[in-house]
């Protein structure tokens, strides 16, 4: 039940501030009140110091907002934060949210803190926040990993070539990390009267309405944010569709996907909690469980490895391997039978009705099955005027409409379309030796049933 030592990084190795009023926890990536190693560490330290815990969150909007985030993303985030706040307060933890960057609110509230605890994410913007906090905080500063099963540097000290090179490294050590996490009882409850006022989260829709952000992409009905919604969806999934995960996971119409990715992206459920639940599930055979753990641990943490060790992971010249850029450049002038503008792609106005349906599912509901994500991305490469423009379009559309866009998985999956974590294949027009995906891949599932499912899903959003 203890927090693994590999999850804990001491950023300021000094004694806690004498006379501090509380232990401060910046809840920014792990937006949940349970199965949260950083929160449990903060509570344990607060008990040791005989202090309460204050959790804080910096809400960005306007020009300083999180890059490419819009009303769809913020609605889901705020729903989750409202539930996290209620859960924290039931545990005796105070919660303060302000219009500020995570670094600004953490540094400001650290002035009265004996100790500051951070959770962790791996994107460049998150690294910048942590760096600013380390520069601005003058007391003990500790970071506790809760967003992956195995901390990235523990799994590997370098950028991995492919899943096959990372997989054995994870398998050797992941048992120590796939372990339950006890909820600690906080001995000293926080008194919110002693804290500065923050944003009232009792009505997430009202908070959203007051924000300065892009509202052209609307919130969705298909998914509601929050750790309660995440656990309910996981429980229902493991009791039913998961039984056929091994055979049906690549069939979009079969309903074998768990839809955990938005909740993982916003830190509303722990990947360790998911792994434990999958292992304990009565439904599903050993091969189903192994296949699911491959996705939620190996593939997801390969993406974390990529963004952590790649400066410029959102840029074609840095994210795409040399061999792939070379072969795509050699075929950049190849005739393209179909070309579409970015607006035509966004609106799903192509000759390919199955691609259009996948785009509609993403645009209207914030989700697209992984099998179709690959087909969707390959076609954008094929239909764009250059590989560089194709990469930029794919990333913009991905980050704009997916609930789990702007995620390490998103950046990695888009780069995979262009050759990342892959090898050269047979040469063909436009793609060179980068892997091609044809319409024949749609024969592997019931494409007509998928069209009907998308029609129903989009009607439900109307």
TrEMBL record:
<dbReference type="GO" id="GO:0003904">
    <property type="term" value="F:deoxyribodipyrimidine photo-lyase activity"/>
</dbReference>
<feature type="domain" description="Photolyase/cryptochrome alpha/beta">
    <location>
        <begin position="21"/>
        <end position="152"/>
    </location>
</feature>
<dbReference type="Pfam" id="PF00875">
    <property type="entry name" value="DNA_photolyase"/>
</dbReference>
<dbReference type="InterPro" id="IPR014729">
    <property type="entry name" value="Rossmann-like_a/b/a_fold"/>
</dbReference>
<keyword id="KW-0234">DNA repair</keyword>
<dbReference type="GO" id="GO:0003677">
    <property type="term" value="F:DNA binding"/>
</dbReference>
<dbReference type="InterPro" id="IPR052219">
    <property type="entry name" value="Photolyase_Class-2"/>
</dbReference>
<keyword id="KW-0274">FAD</keyword>
<dbReference type="InterPro" id="IPR036134">
    <property type="entry name" value="Crypto/Photolyase_FAD-like_sf"/>
</dbReference>
<keyword id="KW-0238">DNA-binding</keyword>
<dbReference type="InterPro" id="IPR006050">
    <property type="entry name" value="DNA_photolyase_N"/>
</dbReference>
<dbReference type="InterPro" id="IPR036155">
    <property type="entry name" value="Crypto/Photolyase_N_sf"/>
</dbReference>
<dbReference type="GO" id="GO:0000719">
    <property type="term" value="P:photoreactive repair"/>
</dbReference>
<comment type="similarity">
    <text>Belongs to the DNA photolyase class-2 family.</text>
</comment>
<keyword id="KW-0227">DNA damage</keyword>
<protein>
    <recommendedName>
        <fullName>Deoxyribodipyrimidine photo-lyase</fullName>
        <ecNumber>4.1.99.3</ecNumber>
    </recommendedName>
</protein>
<keyword id="KW-0285">Flavoprotein</keyword>
<keyword id="KW-0456">Lyase</keyword>
